[in-house]
Specification:
The chain is an alpha+beta fold. Helices cover 30% and strands 17% of the residues. This is Beta-lactamase family protein.
Length: 409
């Protein structure tokens, strides 16, 4: 079971009794069978002030969540890929304004959707190339097949891209397939959650000369001591891997999903947008790197200015997602939230409806996972569970309420 952090909580400005509301607020989801279990780690100034585990990593065998449980983090992979890209940027591998076609030639002749159905779409030529910065900020015009709101989304699904990738295609082949599909809009014109970070992962591969898993292991995961993070859990660790669940449409109870089996092996397509598994301890270390402006535990991966630039709002005119984002699913709400280089950035706590600090940043994953870093109050939070999709329950807003009300300094 997690250690007792009462003394640390008090020393760091948290009320331990109020922190206990976190478990009480989340436990009904477990007791009612809506999520299988969860793990939670809260820290301030790098010191853990509260952690909790509850429920089961595998409901069918009653295997409990333990501190070393391995979880699919899906889109919480994206900030790691963004850090990888900015490490290469610091080394002069590219400029943020460079066309993606410099690294992936198939992106050199792009078409943009104008009108029509997925079967008979009229397109026009792109007037602007997709640039590296467009990938980092989700302003590329790419999309996801699971959005189900636009003819181009349907084209992605028809090409085999919805919650995964077609069998046999590696990352390079997937990028070529996406480049052959129309963009939703001219690059840079809007914000749309998409496969952009997967394409960014391919840029990392080409620019570094390494596969994405090799680059991650050598340059990020190894130096940070993230030994349990990777593309799929090795066979020796299958017993620690949590199962994946979806809500039953009739009862709302968590029901086993076969999609989770993909994490039992290294995937053919190394998805920088959603392919990693990790542990709470590992991702806590990554969050400390971001809190430390690119350095943690004697390791520096980014310069401090680069790290701060990553968590700066890059949306046009300083706007929030409500103003420039398509009203589709993303791993965040849109009001009062901007977007940096791979992370959401809180601009307006009033519009966000939670008294968090302006400048708080982070992201979530499709299985209802989430993390955030508050550089003002020096807080990090990692929450892991395995319920897909993340829009099923308001876990993220509930977590912010529960954390913020426990601060009394």
């Amino acid at each position: 079971m997690p250690a007792d952090h009462t003394a640390a909580a008090t020393a760091h400005g948290f009320d331990p009794d109020r922190l206990s509301r976190i478990e009480r607020g989340l436990q009904p989801y477990v007791d009612e069978g809506r999520i299988p279990g969860f793990q939670f780690v809260l820290a301030r100034d790098g010191d853990i002030v509260h952690e909790a585990v509850s429920g089961h990593r595998v409901l069918e065998t009653r295997a409990p969540v333990t501190p070393d449980t391995i979880w699919r983090i899906y889109s919480m992979t994206k900030p790691i890929t963004s850090v990888a890209a900015m490490m290469l940027w610091e080394e002069g591998a590219f400029e943020l304004d460079d066309p993606v076609s410099r690294f992936i030639p198939s992106f050199g002749d792009l078409q943009v959707y104008a009108r029509g159905s997925s079967k008979n779409a009229l397109t026009v030529a792109a007037t602007e190339p997709i640039r590296i910065r467009h990938l980092l900020t989700h302003t590329s015009g790419l999309t996801y097949g699971f959005h189900h709101t636009h003819p181009v989304d349907a084209m992605y699904r028809e090409a085999g891209f919805e919650w995964g990738t077609p069998r046999g295609l590696d990352l390079a082949a997937c990028c070529d397939a996406w480049a052959a599909l129309p963009l939703l809009f001219q690059p840079g014109a809007e914000w749309n959650y998409s496969v952009a970070t997967d394409v960014l992962g391919r840029v990392v591969e080409v620019a570094s000369g390494e596969t994405l898993d090799a680059f991650f292991a050598r340059r990020i995961l190894g130096p940070l001591g993230m030994a349990d993070t990777g593309f799929g859990a090795p066979e020796a660790d299958h017993g620690r891997l949590a199962a994946l669940y979806v809500p039953d449409p009739q009862t709302g109870r968590a029901t086993r999903s076969e999609m989770g089996d993909a994490a039992l092996r290294r995937p053919r397509c190394l998805s920088g947008g959603g392919g990693l598994v990790s542990t709470a301890a590992d991702y806590h270390r990554f969050a400390q790197l971001l809190l430390g402006d690119g350095a943690f535990d004697g390791v520096r991966l980014l310069g401090s200015r680069t790290a701060r630039y990553l968590r700066t709002n890059h949306l046009p005119g300083g706007a929030d997602l409500q103003a420039v984002g398509r009203p589709l699913f993303a791993e965040t709400t849109f009001a009062g939230v901007g977007f940096g280089l791979g992370v959401q950035v809180l601009l307006d706590p009033v519009a966000f409806l939670v008294p968090s600090s302006p400048g708080e940043f982070g992201w979530g994953g499709a299985a209802s996972t989430v993390f955030w870093v508050d550089p003002v109050d020096r807080i990090t939070m990692v929450f892991l569970t395995q319920l897909l999709p993340s829009s099923t329950y308001p876990l993220r807003s509930r977590l912010r309420q529960l954390v913020q009300q426990a601060l009394v300094d």
